[in-house]
């Protein structure tokens, strides 16, 4: 995974080469994993949350799911780390919805989109007359999150002055509005997220070490799609199901085998967000019910170099499929069962393709 700390949630390597592809089988596997990770009967809302929010089948995600299940039932502060598009806000909502605070508010503030002055007012609120334009008292977002969960997205963008003020709230669970002197006590569960290396920022002096340790009580790293390729096809199918109602189609579009191979072989630097965009474009381009490789406009930075080059030269779909199978087998050291999972096809279909393309 990475050097980021993870909760010890057990080993699931025995499942590595037997990951199911269907959503029903995935949910069954998830439920079993959660029962081993956490003694909760039944796991609170996990089946609904997993099927609608975190579609997956990769064994690399099982420790993440186990960690989420463990921490959700507590009040511990969670730090979600991962690249852009890996689903940090979705995961934060999942923590909230499966926690004892699920009936309380879920408040989100993105630290990257506001100036320091606006962000401070947004977080802490202000009293009437505290600054020019403050015509009335305004409650801050932290105050509004009382009894629920407060999600601080892009926490790495927070400036040092606000880092100090946030640290005080985390430590004392109270603060004053801008221009006010009356302490306001809050009962809030904190979840923060970043795509930056906070440890490195601590070392170079741009992020407070004491704040980092306050936030990183329970750090969870969300792996990018290129580290969980088994998930790409099931996730794509889930996204297609979500996208078809606004598209005007009567039913979700389907992916053919070549499209599945192409999606599974891409690196997806934009992760789930980029995958969703590609699929939405494909639904517009595909006249029929099946999405084929020519409907998938994948950015050069995401597509495998060999496939992109071959496609631009007008290579046949069969050749693209053949190359995708070769790359996948090489990536899994020839393990055909794992290759079939990554390609999103059945093992018998893979054997037929190997025979068809004379791959041994």
Task: Describe the protein's architecture and organization.
Helix 10 packs across helix 12. The N terminus is likely disordered. This protein has three domains: 73 residues, no CATH class; 131 residues, Rossmann fold (3-Layer(aba) Sandwich); 131 residues, Helicase, Ruva Protein, domain 3 (Orthogonal Bundle). The protein is elongated, with a radius of gyration of 23 Å. 45% of the residues lie in helices and 10% in strands. It has a five-stranded parallel beta sheet with strand order 2-5-8-1-9. The chain has 360 residues and is of the alpha/beta class. The protein has 16 helices and eleven strands.
Low-confidence stretches: 1-52, 305-314
**CATH level-1 class of the largest domain:** Alpha Beta
The best one-word shape is elongated
CATH-wise, what's the superfamily of the largest domain? Answer: P-loop containing nucleotide triphosphate hydrolases
Walk me through the topology.
Layout: H1 23-37, H2 46-52, H3 62-72, E1 78-81, H4 88-97, E2 106-110, H5 116-124, E3 125-126, E4 138-139, H6 141-144, E5 149-153, H7 160-172, E6 174-175, E7 184-185, E8 189-194, H8 198-203, H9 209-215, E9 218-221, H10 232-247, E10 254-255, H11 257-265, H12 271-285, E11 290-291, H13 305-312, H14 317-331, H15 336-343, H16 347-356
Parallel strand pairs: 1-8, 1-9, 2-5, 5-8, 10-11
Antiparallel strand pairs: 3-4, 6-7
Helix pairs in contact: 1-2, 1-3, 3-4, 10-12, 11-14, 13-14, 14-15, 15-16
């Amino acid at each position: 995974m990475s050097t980021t700390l993870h909760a010890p949630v057990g080993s699931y390597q025995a499942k590595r080469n037997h990951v199911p592809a269907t959503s029903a089988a995935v949910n069954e596997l998830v439920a079993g994993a959660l029962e081993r990770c956490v003694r909760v009967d039944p796991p609170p809302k996990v089946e609904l949350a997993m099927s609608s929010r975190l579609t997956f089948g990769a064994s690399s995600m099982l420790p993440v799911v186990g960690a989420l299940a463990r921490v959700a039932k507590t009040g511990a502060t969670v730090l979600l780390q991962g690249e852009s598009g890996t689903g940090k806000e979705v995961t934060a909502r999942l923590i909230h919805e499966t926690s004892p605070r699920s009936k309380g508010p879920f408040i989100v503030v993105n630290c990257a989109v506001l100036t320091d002055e606006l962000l401070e007012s947004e977080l802490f609120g202000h009293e009437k007359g505290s600054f020019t334009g403050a015509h009335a008292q305004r409650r801050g977002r932290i105050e509004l999150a009382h009894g629920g969960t407060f999600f601080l997205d892009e926490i790495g963008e927070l400036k040092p002055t606000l880092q100090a003020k946030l640290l005080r709230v985390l430590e004392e669970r109270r603060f004053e509005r801008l221009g006010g002197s009356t302490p306001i006590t809050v009962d809030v569960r904190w979840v923060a997220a970043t795509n930056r290396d906070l440890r490195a920022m601590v070392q170079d002096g741009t992020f407070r070490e004491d704040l980092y340790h306050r936030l990183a009580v329970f750090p969870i790293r969300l792996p990018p799609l290129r580290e969980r390729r088994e998930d790409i096809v099931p996730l794509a199918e889930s996204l297609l199901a979500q996208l078809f109602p606004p598209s005007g189609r009567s039913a979700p579009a389907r992916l053919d085998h070549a499209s599945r191979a192409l999606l599974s072989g891409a690196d997806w630097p934009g992760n789930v967000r980029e995958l969703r965009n590609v699929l939405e474009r494909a639904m517009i381009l595909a006249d029929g019910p099946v999405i084929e490789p020519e409907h998938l406009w994948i950015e050069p930075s995401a597509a495998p170099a060999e496939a992109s080059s071959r496609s631009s030269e007008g290579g046949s779909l069969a050749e693209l499929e053949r190359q995708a199978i070769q790359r996948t087998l090489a990536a899994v050291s020839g393990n055909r069962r794992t290759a079939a999972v990554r390609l999103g096809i059945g093992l018998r279909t893979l054997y037929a393709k190997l025979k068809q393309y004379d791959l041994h």
